[in-house]
Write a structure and sequence with these properties.
By secondary structure, this protein is mostly helical. It is about 80% helix and about 0% strand.
């Protein structure tokens, strides 16, 4: 569990600097320059991500359930993941209504991903991993909404349709087997 927790600190820490220490972040950017800041940010985050993946995998070998997961939660999580993947696509597809309206669709996607996985999973490791990301996403979204910045460009029907289509295709690919191949668990196990 230590690797998972250390990974979360190293990954979410740099992603939280703008929330908890924006002045320090601005000072580092000014002192180091954008390139050096981004290299350090990326390096620490990558080490954190690798520790999260390894630590969560290790924690899954010795699960400690906290509650009985209600029937059908994997289907609710699947629906939330569909919405999350559409929002994730909206973060990158130019000129879509979702980004224009919501401003920060990627952070909202993280919220839905974490919430869905908390609903469908029940171990200590799940609570630590998905709970940490959910708390971070809530705080980051609030912080981002308070920061002044340029509004995203107005959305178009074409941009929105592309974002939705990319999200749906990504969801189908994950549901059809990529989640099982990467994580080792089918999001929709068959009854039998």
């Amino acid at each position: 569990m230590w690797a998972l927790i250390l990974g979360l600190i190293l990954f979410l820490g740099p992603h939280s600097v703008r929330i908890v220490a924006p002045g320090w972040r601005d000072a580092r950017l000014a002192a180091w320059g954008e390139r050096r800041w981004k290299l350090g940010y990326t390096a620490v985050s990558l080490v954190g991500l690798l520790l999260i993946v390894w630590g969560y995998g290790q924690a899954r070998l010795d699960p400690h359930p906290l509650w009985a997961t209600p029937r059908g939660m994997n289907h609710l999580a699947g629906l939330l993941m569909l919405l999350a993947l559409i929002l994730l696509a909206a973060a990158y597809v130019p000129r879509n209504h979702l980004k224009a309206r919501l401003g920060h669709p990627m952070v909202l996607a993280v919220k839905l991903w974490a919430l869905g996985h908390l609903l469908a999973n029940n171990t200590v490791a799940d609570l630590v991993l998905f709970g940490a990301f959910l708390v971070w996403a809530v705080l980051d979204f609030r912080s981002a909404r308070r920061r002044a910045g340029p509004r995203p460009p107005a959305g178009t029907a074409r941009g929105t349709a592309i974002a939705v289509a990319v999200g749906v295709v990504a969801w189908v690919v994950f549901a059809a087997g990529l989640h099982r191949a990467l994580i080792g668990v089918s999001p929709f196990p068959t009854v039998g």
